[in-house]
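Write out the bound-state structure for flavin-adenine dinucleotide.
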Amino acid sequence: MSPDEIDVLVVGGGPAGMAAGISFGRAGLRTLVCERGLLPADKPCGEGVMPTGLQYLERLGVSAYLDQDHTRHFAGIHYLPTSGAGAASRFAEGPGRGIRRTELSRAFCERARIIDGLEVLPRTPVTLGARGPNGTEAWLDRRKVTARLIVGADGLRSEVRRWAGLQGVSTQRRRFAVQQHFRCQPWSEYVEVHWAGDAEAYVTPCGRGEVGVAVLWTAEEKKSGGGQRLMESMLSRFPRLRAPLQGAEPSSGARAIGPMHQVARSPVADGVGLVGDASGYLDAITGEGISLALAQVQALYDSIGPWMLSNDAVPSARELQGYSRRILGMVRQHQLITRLVLFLSRKPTLAERAIKGLGRQPELFRWLLSANMGAVSAASFPKLEMMRLATALVRG
Ligand SMILES: Cc1cc2nc3c(=O)[nH]c(=O)nc-3n(C[C@H](O)[C@H](O)[C@H](O)COP(=O)(O)OP(=O)(O)OC[C@H]3O[C@@H](n4cnc5c(N)ncnc54)[C@H](O)[C@@H]3O)c2cc1C
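---
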């Protein structure tokens, strides 16, 4: 193999891309991760990593590199309407962890550095070319490589998805988000989700003396007015956040993102596998993206990694079908719950009733959190509790 012929080219150095680089690289496949921006990378995100996501970080050997100062464990989720106690549930699987994106990225980079055969290139946008019998040609700045497998981990607006002809059509109402960090003592052991009728605010403890706040809303267009003004106007919808954030200095700039919903017709094509947001994304309302991305990477490696170690050929879409099947199952359950929560987000009165109902049925709330992160199967659906919740929704 010439130095320009590699096994795996990963496009994108976010959590999905770095996890893919580590998974394929440590197995002995010649792997290159290209990130078009700087590393460590930042991104507007709620930054709550669910217990299942933490298990993947442990298996990848990344957890050991996380600095306690920039992370904080949280017990579960607390839904808060504009008034009243709301509903809180601890995760059955143990705590989650708020992790600053820059810290997560730094830990991934440290872990990747000690893997022979894995190269990570920041500030390196990738342009993909023709697919041939030895793989796909790709230009990275002035260097050209040929890779047997292209892993598209380039996020919501994936160029790999378009290049591979896998772009689907979004039918959802458009949703946007703005996110910023504040210097203050985290005041809750939960990730708080505040509901304000037409928007939701997520507060994640993400370090000693720091919280992240992400506000999500539905609109035809991203609102104008720039990051900071946008954040201030969105936060004014959440009177319950005024007191805890009073006097808290911003510790990062406010950044907006969206529309969130993105569709891939399929996560695979000849010589291509999409992971993370590039493989399609519904909404951040249930805060699962990182955990789901890591689960997908594990599924991609399990489905094609051993095959690539014993074959010199380019994996065809058919060889990648195992991955496709596995992630469709994984994503379906998560999307079902996300769609249910999105529906409630459009019906403020029903949402308030649902939160009240969940407050009275903590077991059901806990089951929904487990099902959302794929820790229990939808087949274990608690019918009786669901019926009770449905009755509460109808009766008020
Ligand atoms: C408001 C909001 C809140 C969220 N909250 C949570 C939460 O609390 N918990 C959670 O688990 N998830 C959350 N998510 C989802 C989570 O942020 C994503 O699912 C996750 O970042 C997906 O990782 P990724 O690696 O697929 O994509 P990204 O993190 O977007 O990384 C993609 C990378 O690819 C790079 N790239 C793009 N094009 C190219 C190119 N041509 N060449 C090279 N590099 C390229 C980009 O620069 C980027 O660094 C949230 C999302 C949003 C929008």
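---
The two ends are 67 Å apart (CA to CA).
The first helix runs from residue 15 to 26.
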